[in-house]
Design a protein that fits this description.
This protein is mainly beta and 152 residues long. Helix content is 8%, strand content 36%. The protein has 2 helices and 9 strands, in the order βαββαββββββ. A 5-stranded antiparallel sheet has the order 2-3-1-4-5, with helices on one face. Strand 4 and strand 5 form a beta hairpin. The N and C termini lie far apart (49 Å).
């Protein structure tokens, strides 16, 4: 029997979290938001993977790690299409889409140089702009930023 060499297999997770359908250009910012640069768990990151719906996508697999929903939803700022799969004993036991929280604290840097958050040691605070989906507004100075242009 001949094996096809057109696909590369990545080890399956016994237990952990898989975040799929991340826009390729947002993948490494999502890694940063989740604090995965320092994880001690097995971590698999795939970028520019072929996707019929997105063209190119990213994926994050973290073994033996289960994130709080609030933490995962923070990546919705940059990856609103992301899908979270919870894996237990090699099976997907939960699948859900991320949803952007109404308030985002301490993640995004305000790009208004006059904003108090750029001149005082304090956490940033942004709210979703209801009348302009895909944008967030600084709580302190009112500056509006497109989600995909947010500086992490």
């Amino acid at each position: 029997m001949q094996t096809s060499k057109t696909e590369l297999a990545v080890a399956a997770l016994r237990d952990g979290t898989v975040i799929d359908h991340i826009p390729a250009e947002a993948l490494f910012k999502c890694v940063k938001i989740l604090g995965l640069e320092t994880t001690r768990h097995r971590l698999t990151i795939g970028n520019n993977l072929e996707s019929k719906g997105m063209g190119a996508k990213g994926i994050i697999k973290v073994a033996d790690t289960f994130f709080p929903e609030e933490q995962l939803n923070r990546i919705a700022l940059l990856a609103p299409t992301a899908v979270v799969n919870i894996i237990r004993d090699y099976a997907v036991v939960e699948k859900r889409h991320v949803t952007l929280p109404e308030v985002v604290v301490g993640i995004v840097r305000c790009n208004n140089p006059k904003c108090i958050t750029n001149n005082e040691p304090m956490l940033t605070r942004f709210t979703s702009v209801a009348e302009k989906p895909g944008y967030i507004r600084c709580h302190y100075c009112g500056h509006t930023i497109a989600n995909n242009k947010a500086e992490i």
